Amino acid sequence: MSDPATTEDRALDLFVHALKMCHGYDFSDYARASLKRRAEQLAADLGEPGIGHLIPRLIYEPSLLGDVIARLSVPVSDMFRDPEVFAVLRERVLPVLASYPRVNIWQAGCAQGEEVYSTAILAEEAGLLPRSRFYATDINDQALARASEGIFAARRVDGFATNYDRAGGRHDFADYYRSRYDLIRMRRTLRERVVFAHHNLVTDGVFAETHLIMCRNVLIYFSQALKERVLRLFADSLVRGGYLVLGTRETLQFSALAPYFEVVSEPHRIYRLKRERSIHRV
Ligand SMILES: C[S@@+](CC[C@H](N)C(=O)[O-])C[C@H]1O[C@@H](n2cnc3c(N)ncnc32)[C@H](O)[C@@H]1O
């Protein structure tokens, strides 16, 4: 009798292959254990006894794709998540960005938009919102649709406000949204600065002339090889002197790209592309 763990591993390989062949999404370089857990959960949620049973559904039910991507992609986030990171951005990064006539900020893996609205609030408080353009991207179209509405459950507001205060917020967090019943909606002045777009870090290209890239808690789901590809993409997208912010469990330290960046704050995973070295020599 074959080992069920091995069977599920083979099923996962075939599932990943089917997803790529049928729909063009390539999860083959995602960290294996967490991808397997999410695929198992997806199978259970769809009433299937195992990952392999998802394969015919991927083939014959194309309408399932949105749900499949949504379930595989973990769109968990928070406003001012890790507030101390936003406090350092406020103190050390935004004042530098304020010296540019225009600022492009790329929020890669934006989930439902919590982080991009947080960064837009920082820009507002640094006086550079009208000169800023935010590009917030993700592979999860369901999350992107929610993000672009800027709507969140009102029960989350206390947590948002606490994080905002810890991040050195200069106003009342309530200044940035309107309440409607059990929902809040972020103010139009913030929403209209953000372009939400589908972009896959595995397969898609650069966003040129970016001054700040925030990509937090996304690389943890990738293999080492894929992390390197994505870091290279970021280096190619940044202007010289542009900033890169990773999640607190992600680092540039052991990457081949590390020599091209200076460390602004390692504990907060904030890096800056050096001005003097050409990235194309990597
Ligand atoms: C845990 S959330 C992180 C959200 C936010 N950056 C934060 O730190 O709170 C990870 C996000 O990465 C997105 N993601 C996963 N793979 C991706 C890819 N290949 N390209 C773009 N986004 C991806 C997921 O859809 C998800 O919304």
Structure description:
Helix content is 40%, strand content 19%. The strands form 2 sheets. A 7-stranded mixed β-sheet has the order 6-2-1-7-8-10-9. Helix 10 links the parallel strand 7 and strand 8. It is an alpha/beta fold. It contains 10 helices and 10 strands. The longest helix has 20 residues. The chain has 2 domains: 69 residues, no CATH class; 199 residues, Rossmann fold, CATH 3.40.50.150. The structure holds S-adenosylmethionine. S-adenosylmethionine binds next to loops. It comes from Salinisphaera hydrothermalis (strain C41B8).
How would you concisely characterize the structure shown here?
One of its GO terms (biological process) is methylation. The chain is α/β, with parallel strands linked by helices.
